[in-house]
Amino acid sequence: MQSQLEPVHHKPAHLVHKAAVPMIISMTRIWLLLNPTHVTVSKEDTFIDLVSGVGQVVLQMAGSFPLKTCIGIVKEYKTARYAERMDVIFRQYMGWFDKRYCEFKLIKGDFLVDEHREKITSSTLVLVNNFAFGPTVDHQLMERFADLRDGARVVTPKSYCPLNFRITDR
Prior knowledge:
Elements (H helix, E strand, L loop, with lengths): L19 H15 L11 E4 L6 H9 L4 E6 L2 H20 L7 E5 L8 H5 L3 E3 L7 H11 L7 E3 L15
Parallel strand pairs: 1-2, 1-4, 2-3, 4-5
Helix pairs in contact: 1-2
């Protein structure tokens, strides 16, 4: 059985188009979130995707689970425009098929600015695709994660610390 964190490539890594890699990672993220043995959710949970792209994971969560709210933050202008269109289409289809979904918001912006800090720290389920981040962004994210509520869960494809990491008295 393959690990859920390793994308499947049918071509050698050097032949995979760069635009395909985020899509593969997104599919991995959806599988991770929807697998109930890894993450359980309730109607009191607030979900936030810090690198939401066009918003497909946020919309999937909003349509699949009775969450309090779902938030997605995307930085790139062009991707944010696609996310706006996805928002409209999602609402149309959900209305057409008379399906319920929880409140959601797709936001254009940088998740590291203070304007979004409260959104992150008040969330109970945080998804961040940290494959492309360097040490500076990782450190800034860890500072925000330190302020999360007790019991909040952070889902990442790449861990921030080793599994045997322990806090000591030092």
